[in-house]
From TrEMBL:
Identification of the protein by name: Imidazolonepropionase
Species the sequence originates in: Caldalkalibacillus horti
Protein residues bound to Zn(2+): H85, H87, H254, D329
Keyword set includes Cell inner membrane: no
Major enzyme class: hydrolase
Binding positions (N-formimidoyl-L-glutamate): Y157, N331, G333
Cofactor binding notes: Binds 1 zinc or iron ion per subunit.
């Protein structure tokens, strides 16, 4: 056998291919994780073209040539991480809210007083498209540095036609200019802007009117809504999302983040791709998510940062055989971090997920949460070479040694994007 690669990774200590085919992995199956020891991976034209043993490279039982050879020195190698829920594009920052949090002002009260999401809306409206591209590029670079190679990005800090389109166009530019894969979500229904304070239904109608333009310019694939006390009710969310679905968008929902309104049940009823947060989700909601195959996308960084006493019931969801994914929820208010590795630690300590479950949740299932399960989240023959080489001896190590960055080298579509 002879091989000719652009890049050869050899002397891999542990290789997690996460190669499970095109379907997501449900709760109980998430315990079984295949680990290849002493492996090697060959990459050609941005794709994985060979997965073999290190002996084949060292003993040259096959004729292997490569433009570049990387000695992995016994380290852990995994698929690039997928972050399926972020609010990537925004103006300004909200560090002054930390003192309010410390004084015990609840998140939804800050919003009610015109702060929170609404203060980011003001700053985003005032920031130029060019500046937003620059700012988001900085965050994308940092996400790459943490091992993330695919990310979802929501709008929702415009809440008017002009600024929502501006945010979405920023994402479209970044899809072309940046090496990160970015999946775009329209979250025009993120809060009620001051102008529509007394007329939330009219506001939702105006956001629905944008969908045509969004489709015309191909600006988003998903539509999302913040279904929450003081924001949008179940009824409003049902109406809004149903109309988006009719227009051909896939659905996501910020569900049961703070109050248990029944967002999970609504996601199941509407056949949403994912329901996100799920901190206050009921038994019935968990059962329905599992039945309908809606991805339960958990964001433990947010419950941690909001100081919630109880996190999402991940164990019950896994027990119910739901499809569980993890994300950062990166945003300037409820979770200002790009560090998905830290979220993996929170998933272990607060959600009581096992390391095996956590790895599925940040690769295979995270990719399914944003509709790219057939292309991303695995190291497999003829899949895109999105690969992380970690300064860690094994996969248990990442959630264990916490709040630092373990990446050694990050490869996206066969190219080194961080080293
Ligand atoms: O997912 N909950 C709504 N949206 C974000 C927070 C956005 C913000 O505070 O700016 C979230 O937590
Ligand atoms: Fe969010």
């Amino acid at each position: 056998m002879s091989h000719n690669f652009d890049l050869l990774l050899y002397n891999i200590g542990q290789l997690l291919t996460m190669d499970v085919g095109t379907e997501p992995v449900r709760g109980k199956q998430m315990q079984k994780l295949e680990v290849l020891e002493h492996a090697a991976v060959g990459i050609k034209d941005g794709k994985v073209t060979w997965i073999g043993s290190n002996e084949e490279v060292v003993q040259a039982t096959s004729v292997i040539t490569a433009k570049e050879k990387m000695d992995c020195q016994g380290k852990l190698v995994t698929p690039g991480l997928v972050d399926p829920h972020t609010h990537l594009v925004f103006g300004g920052s909200r560090e002054h809210e930390l003192a309010l949090k410390q004084a015990g002002v609840p998140y939804l009260d800050i919003l009610k007083q015109g702060g929170g999401i609404l203060s980011t809306v003001k700053m985003t409206r005032e920031t130029s498209e060019e500046e937003l591209v620059k700012k988001a590029t900085f965050h994308l670079d940092r996400m790459h540095s943490y091992g993330i190679t695919t990310v979802e990005a929501k709008s929702g800090y415009g809440l008017d036609w002009e600024t929502e389109l501006k945010q979405l166009r920023v994402v479209k530019k970044l899809q072309k200019s940046h090496t990160m894969d970015i999946i775009s979500t329209f979250l025009g229904a993120h809060a009620i802007p001051q102008e529509y304070k007394e007329r939330p239904d009219d506001f939702l109608t105006s956001m629905l009117e944008l969908l045509g333009q969004i489709q015309e310019e191909d600006l988003a694939q998903f539509v999302d809504i913040f279904c929450e006390t003081g924001v949008f009710s179940i009824e409003q969310s049902r109406k809004f999302l149903s109309q988006a679905k009719e227009k051909g968008f896939e659905l996501k929902i910020h569900a049961d983040e703070i109050d248990p309104l029944g967002g999970a049940e609504l996601a199941a009823e509407l056949g949403a791709r994912s329901a996100d947060h799920l901190v206050g989700t009921s038994d019935e909601g968990i059962k329905r998510l599992a039945e309908e195959g809606v991805v339960a996308c958990l964001l433990p960084g947010t419950s941690f940062y909001l100081g919630k006493p109880t996190p999402a019931r991940a164990r019950d969801m896994l027990e119910a055989d739901a499809i569980v994914a993890l994300a950062t929820d990166f945003n300037p208010g409820s979770c200002p971090t790009e560090n998905l590795q830290f979220i993996m630690t929170l998933a272990a300590l607060q959600l009581r997920m096992t390391p095996e479950e956590i790895w599925y949740a940040v690769t295979v299932n995270a990719a399914h949460a944003i509709g790219v399960g057939a292309e991303r989240g695995q190291i497999a023959f003829q899949r895109s070479a999105d690969i992380v080489l970690w300064d860690a001896p094994n996969y248990l190590y990442i959630p264990y040694h916490y709040a630092v960055n373990h990446t050694n080298t990050v490869i996206k579509d066969g190219k080194i994007v961080y080293r």
